[in-house]
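Hey, can you fold this?
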Amino acid sequence: MTLDKNDLKQIREIVREEVREVVREEVHDQIITEVPPIIEAKILPLKQKIDQIWDSLNEDLISNLTMIEKLSKKVKEMDSRIKKLELSK
């Protein structure tokens, strides 16, 4: 059995397609194993910064809520004093 040019072309194309498939699988596996650490290395500092900002905002919020609570008590005290003064007149 001899192979003509068309047979060789078909064989070549089949081999190329098989090689492409193997390369795709290898590259895919490599991306899956190598990219996440790269992404994680870039995302981790951002996540830490976001966590710091979030913690700071929470501290500010707690501080503001505490201040509002104190002011609310003062307003109630003042309101109570005003009512007492009005009643005493």
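Oh, and this one too while you're at it.
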Amino acid sequence: MMVVSDGGLIITLADVILEAGPTNVLQVITHLGHFSRGFESITEARFPHIFWSHCTSHSINLLMEEIAELDWMKAVVSCARGIDQLISTYRRSSSCLVIDTTKESSDPLSLKFAPSYALVKRIFETKQALQEEVVGEEWKRWKLTTPEDVSSIEAVIFGDDFWGRAHLMLQLCEPFMRLLATFDIKKSIMGDVYYWWVQSLEAVRSRGIDEVTVNQLELLAENRWDVLFSPLHAAGYILNPRYFGRGQSKKKTLMRGWKATVERYESDSATRLLLREQLSAYWRLQGSLGEADAMECRDKMDPVAWWENFGFETPNLQTLAIKILSQVSCVEVCRESWQCDNLPCREAIKRSAVERGEDIEDLVFVRNNLRLQSQKL
């Protein structure tokens, strides 16, 4: 479910929840950033069991940009931005025809999720071209007439310090972006984003980067994960059979998320105790959860189907797992469904709604739900 930044629509949101049935709604996904706090407090006051989740795409973008705010990376990004701005100023005023090579290496994924990384990457990839450009006669004449601080940027371009630190930054961030391209965020379920983070850190370590630097990334995620990501992500990573046996019980971030999930989802203390006991049964492979077929099918079956087939001896946990693992985590599924490029199609839907005396919002609601349902078939 997506919410837009219009205070009047909080009433509409509540009406939709009531129409669907509060017990049938597990989460509301938002793309509003810090503007969503007011909506969140109002919604949670009325529906305390419903999770208010940030869109995964938006959260990944914030996380990658916060990585770029680490002190030494921030200096690298600042230098890259200075180079980019000065070169752009020069090329706009140059009388020579200059091919803008600094713009050629940008890729859409990096620009969307890690713009600071994308900037450093394209500057780094044009190192030789930049060094050749700033020794040319045209450059020498131009810098005599410009008020820009040219000498300091020239020192950066010809020095080794910036390029060395830029290379380290790219080594750290590249696995995150490469692995991000391997799974469809729009269709990702709760827990997938945590697996992406774990895989990325493992890939960084495999490059022989010093442990102090890697620990900086882990500490940042530890401190910011609860703010950026819904606790349902942690619960999803714990309950997804594909990720079974990855030491989840020893990860503070995951166990905090599991605790928050159980406490919000279930108000009755006796039932919460039962959920925790059944999670232990899942981890200990008790009953049907430890059968040969159950273990063999963990990474072969859809997670929801797996719980439907093998979770019957832990019914409370089975119900929760199915609810969580049935959730999408990104609002772009709904946004793209409506904001399609096929304008005639969109106009036809509007005309059809008017002719039938129907509410266009109802048609969009039904269309989005049908699309979500079809993706799970």
